[in-house]
Amino acid sequence: MTRATTLAWLLSLVTSVFSDEQLPCVPRQFEYDSVVCVCNATYCDTLPRPSPPPAGEFLLFTSDLQGLRLHKTNGYMNMENHISESETAEGAIHFTLDPNQEYQTVMGWGAAFTDAAAFNILSLSEPTQEMLLKSYFGSEGLEYNIGRVNIGGCDFSWRPYTYDDVEGDVDLSFFELQSEDIDYKIPLIHRANAMSGAPLKLFASPWSAPAWMKTNEDIVGYGHLKTEMYQPWANYFVKFLDGYSGYNLSFWGLTAQNEPIDGYVPGFFFNCMGWTAKQQQRWVAENLGPTLEEAGYGDIKLMILDDQRFNLPGWAETVMSNPDAAKYVDGIAVHIYTDSWVDAERLTQTNDIFPELFIISSEACEGMGLLPHPQVAPGLWERLEKYAQDIIVDMNHWVRAWVDWNLALDMQGGPNWAKNFVDAAILVNKETDEFYKNPMYYALAHFTKFVPEGAVRIDLTTGDAPDTLVSTAFKNPDGSLVVVLLNRSESSSNVTIGSEGRGDIAFNVGPRSIHSLLFT
Predict the structure, then answer these.
(1) Is 363 a catalytic site residue?
(2) Which residue among 87, 180, 259, 366 is the active-site one?
(3) What are the pLDDT digits (tens) for 261-294?
(4) Helix (H) or strand (E) holding 232
(5) Domains of the chain
(6) Which of 79, 185, 331, 334 has the largest count of CB atoms under 10 Å?
(7) Which of the residues 87, 143, 180, 363 is marked catalytic?
(8) Known active-site residue 259
(9) pLDDT tens digits along 435-486
(10) E strand spans, 349-468
């Protein structure tokens, strides 16, 4: 542990002792530039949902490269004449907040109950499992309200499988949920529901139909669904929903296919199935939509695409051009992986064309083997910055929910039968019965703890902020206001945030830091 990290941890510890509010991070430094927070069977850092401060005051929560994790300070707006001269120094970057200019309503935050995530969580002792689940779903954790579930196997399974691998079984007589569902995911979802106090908004996504339904007779590689299997594949969805209903779990949503472009990539190496937008349009209109409705699942939110944003707005335009398909579609799901190269204005264009459809970011991870860092990099601050940057940009372009990928992975970034290892917000070390909260976890916390379901994005503008300082703002159902700022620069900046009738807030944004500002 570095000297700066030790001082940051001691500062957090002293704050928690005297405030009697949150348990601080216990930091551990691996070989990377920041720290993870260590949790075990008896201890884990917490953050109760903060109450809005009295009028004229604000709360500021800061995490940074040096080791602060949601460190709380409080201050006063300038109408009370408490702003220091240094805080209003010349050259401060000014933001203007307009709570009366409202945009989209936030649907929430979450992550995926993959087979791998469930396996890793259940590899821990019962008390440590509880600590991990509370870190995501408890009142002193991230308070996730959304969960994604894979329909059949995905790459983050320890084996390739589907629910009916019996050749030619078009009636799905041999369809059955697997141990991955019954012994792993379903029990964890029930525990998460109990902790959250309300059923999660669960949505499910398929990676591949059984091999015998596909043109290439394989669950990987270049291939798509045979046209004669369109109806059996729609029936497969109903079988899945019925199966989970038998365990007292219902789904809020479905995506029509995970990453449909993958199945049209020659040699693609994990579970996939190709669709064009035109093929998806036909299947939704003629098979999936009517089948869900006839089976009593007509209220499920059906999302199209579930792939990279570069497919927009064209994918949505194609599917929605058929009224028989459009009447079944509720939303569009996008993934994070090409966001650094594709303009987010595509999201705004899509929202402008189809304001009746919600947009969610349905999958995100870091560490896909790209140099200079390996798949798993405990404590790497850059990955927090990438998450936070993506969330801010997405929210500023009409995205309503942001869903992480695996809830927890092991220290290799798996298990993954295809060896497609990646990083995760929480890493599990079953050998020591502990888990590590990566910086990415705190990127999420800076939103989930301050911007609940039902919050509305509001207008926040600036004329002089550099590209390394990005921000977004929200109005919560209780009337409180939240501003989130990310500083990717190596230098600090003085910032002021003004809102007519509320006065100005001034504070310093330190280098390589993220801040959540809460006020009334």
Answers:
(1) yes
(2) 259
(3) 999 999 999 999 999 999 999 999 999 999 999 9
(4) helix 230-245
(5) 3-104+456-519 (2.60.40.1180), 108-448 (3.20.20.80)
(6) 334
(7) 363
(8) yes
(9) 999 999 999 999 999 999 999 999 999 988 999 999 999 999 999 999 999 9
(10) 358-363, 399-406, 409-410, 426-429, 434-437, 456-462
